[in-house]
Amino acid sequence: MKIATFGVxxxxxxxxxxxxxxxxxxxxxxxxxxELIDMAGVDNSVLGELRGMRMxxxxxxGSDRLRDAVAGLYETQSRENILTTHGTIGANAxxxxxxxxxGDHVIAIVPTYQQHYSIPESIGAEVELLHLRPENGFLPDLxxxxxxxxxxxxxxxxxxxxNPTGALMxxxxxxxxxxxxxxxxxxxxxxxxxxxxxQTGDGYTASICDLYDRGISTAGMSKAYSLAGLRxxxxxxxxxxxxxxxxxxxxxxxxxxxxxxxxxxxxxxxRAQILERAHRITRGTSKSWxxxxxxxx
Length: 297
Ligand SMILES: Cc1ncc(COP(=O)(O)O)c(C=O)c1O
What we know:
Blueprint: H1 7-15, H2 33-40, H3 43-51, H4 64-71, E1 82-86, H5 87-99, E2 105-110, H6 115-123, E3 126-131, H7 142-148, E4 153-159, H8 171-182, E5 187-191, E6 215-220, E7 232-236, H9 239-252, H10 258-269, H11 271-282
Parallel strand pairs: 2-3, 2-4, 4-5, 5-6
Antiparallel strand pairs: 1-7, 6-7
Helix pairs in contact: 2-10, 4-10, 5-6, 5-9
The chain binds pyridoxal-5'-phosphate.
């Protein structure tokens, strides 16, 4: 399978671990496992639990504990609607591989993470780009989206909050996108890896999987939760779709590492503390955080 080179990843690979100041960082400053354990307040129990962990493949679809914690991030999802993956990047790749075939019409809202147009292109889909513009506050023009829709549109791929612009679609706008998609029975894939970092309230905007029966939300531990090194992500969506994704996932994942899932569950169960720190940093009120003190994507 031919695929375009992943521009931002290649650029980051070259520079991110050798630069003094990483101004291209996209995660909330990563925390150490020690900081996670302190924030979770579980100091004495962790080693015992790790020692007792049997290093088999573990729960194939993701541990119940983690899937329950992830489901708790959504309004209408339960364990059965969550599948764990190798990062959000793994979740996105699996959704595209599962749903897109040669010749399908896909609308990708850009700029965005390159997966959302280069993977469908590599599969042979007809990918049309809907450009975000500064004059619209980098929010999609929904009339333009309506005009691009076709009876055979298979997917609208988007990202909220948006990387790289930071623009945030609210619940009403997501619901309108769902209505537009519904007319063609199209899927809406929303990469929500930055969910939790909104500038107000609890940081969580609405999720497409809670708004639309063909809505798929992908996310992971890297950004708001400051734990990119765990390489854990997930797909949240209809159970029947997850069963189809499993067919592909059996070929390239088997299961996600048990240690990674363990610490991810711990983090999500302690997300109040983790997000309190994240919001101090991303909302500009942190005194302790220093640019460039850590290195990660
Ligand atoms: C929009 C977007 N999606 C997915 C990813 C990959 O995230 P993860 O580290 O969870 O695989 C990134 C990483 O920068 C991203 O910006």
